[in-house]
Amino acid sequence: MISIEQLSVEFGVKPLFRNVSFVVNDRDRIALVGKNGAGKSTMLKIICGLQKPTEGNVAIPTDTTIGYLPQVMVLQDNTTVKEEARKAFADTAKLKAQIEELNRQMAERTDYESPEYAELVAKFTQKHDHYMMIGGDNYEAEIERTLTGLGFTRNDFERPTKEFSGGWRMRIELAKILLRRPDVLLLDEPTNHLDIESIGWLERFLQQSAKAVVLVSHDRAFINNVTNRTIEISCGQVNDYKVKYDEYVKLRAERHEQQLRAYENQQKEIADIKDFIERFRYKPTKAVQVQSRIKQLEKIVPIEVDEVDNATMHLKFPPCLRSGDYPIICEDVRKDYGEHTVFKNVNLTIKRGEKVAFVGKNGEGKSTLVKCIMGEIPFTGNLKVGHNVQIGYFAQNQAQLLDGEISVFDTIDRVAKGEVRLKIKNILGAFMFSGEAIDKKVKVLSGGERSRLAMIKLLLEPVNLLILDEPTNHLDMASKEVLKEAINAFDGTAIIVSHDREFLDGLVSKVYEFGGGAVREHLGGIYDYLRSRDISSLNELAAMSQQSAAPAQTVATQQNDDTAASSGKISYAEHKEQQKKIRRVEKLIKESETKIEAMEKRIAEIDTLLCLPENAADMTLINEYTEIKSRMDEEEERWTELSEELEALK
Fold first, then answer.
1. What is the pLDDT of residues 475-494, one digit of tens each?
2. Torsion, Cα of 283, 285, 287, 288 (10° steps)
3. Could you tell me the end-to-end alpha-carbon distance of the chain, in angstroms, rounded to an integer?
4. The ABC transporter domain covers which part of the protein (predicted)?
């Protein structure tokens, strides 16, 4: 579909790419990977025509359409959400207007037998057929489905776009791109401003509805769920792996080992040749052999080993004071903005040492509750910050609070204490600051670089309660692992607002779900939470919030507990225990069926053997047959009991 041919890009002395070639085929799901600065975003810009390569070209068929979602975009302020999304169908609307104009002309004319009228009818028929073929009358429904999938409600459709935060406005742009149904989707960090539910919807859309996809993302779970091919940019070249990201990581490690062995063998060969040349350079009898070795040396093409950072960077938070047993206690906390209630009746207790996640759709109050804890905004109810609690807060706008007039190195040097000061360059390197970058002034850094610097600064401050609001948005996978390891080793308490499932997995032991004005507690990790909710769409999540058919243990005070109990509803703990019993019984039934199937197979084999004249009196086979038959009868009785138990539980 798209052919990249002999592509070279040079920004400075060292080229970004050299003679890169690959093809994007229909139905490809490509993850474009490589370390920061390798040129992933540049590659996307070149493919969509926003940037020109130094050499080479990108061959795109004339009828191929491309949709490109950059990390940063200019958004409109003068339309509503639905009007902005409707722009995706500008060509469809234009075609509809042309059809209406042709229809008007045909109605006004009476020269039905003339060639001009026949030409008009043919033109009308062609355009009308094309309009019907592209589903021109259905685009309003398609707009609503896509906006709803990305988290908007019907009440949002007529709201001006300027009322929404940057993350929500990015969703509008993403909706427009998806609605155009381009032949090739180029997505640069599409999950940065999406919540977990919207990421799930986008995953399903890309799996089922998209044609070809090329994406850059640091969300490991997302690219594993979406992609079937991984293209790595390394050393100015591309390496194409026809596998998902996790499999690519294994194959890349094997390939790197092979490269190292080949490199070492070549270096040995070069050393041997040079040694021969030096030993016999001045011996006339060896002149021919020496010249042969010199020519052989000139023909050797050096083996280049991929750039791999094998250094293991471990970062620990400095020792801190022991806080009280309960760093955060909320009692009937409520926050309203005018007539809009963000949340109410929030009752939660976070114990010392716990690491918890705040999740939910954007706008449901996660960051708002964090600001209440920080004392930045007023609220009603009682919120207690425990004894000796020292809070380290990473806000989404934390990068803007750094001193722009000092260097990257000085920013960290001012907070580093003790031996850590000797490792500042290593720490900066782990978060992608190296070489000349550490001497740059903060004011010239990009937004992503500032965020990473603010994160390093926080990691070095002695605190016992960490509050991190979307900490991974601008971190690559290696930096996220450094941060995750540091938080896991942190002996204080942590509250993490994040949509990154892989980052939260194995990190948090409790999840607080924000939605519908309430905050609900889910015991277990992030994947336990997702399994318990069994979320397949945002609509289902909303319905579950409203109906509470299988309610989570609510942290919001339930004023109708007695009513719920009397009407036969069960608590979250009871529901979870019941589901646990059902899963256990289902597992036992499956095991029983496997045993019965194996015994039936063996009995059939023995039957066949006993039918042979030579085995008719074989007591070993007869005894085995009797024993298996007895065991099978017992197993079938057990299967019946388990089936009845499962039916009763359900």
1. 777 778 888 888 988 889 99
2. -160
3. 51
4. 2-260, 328-541
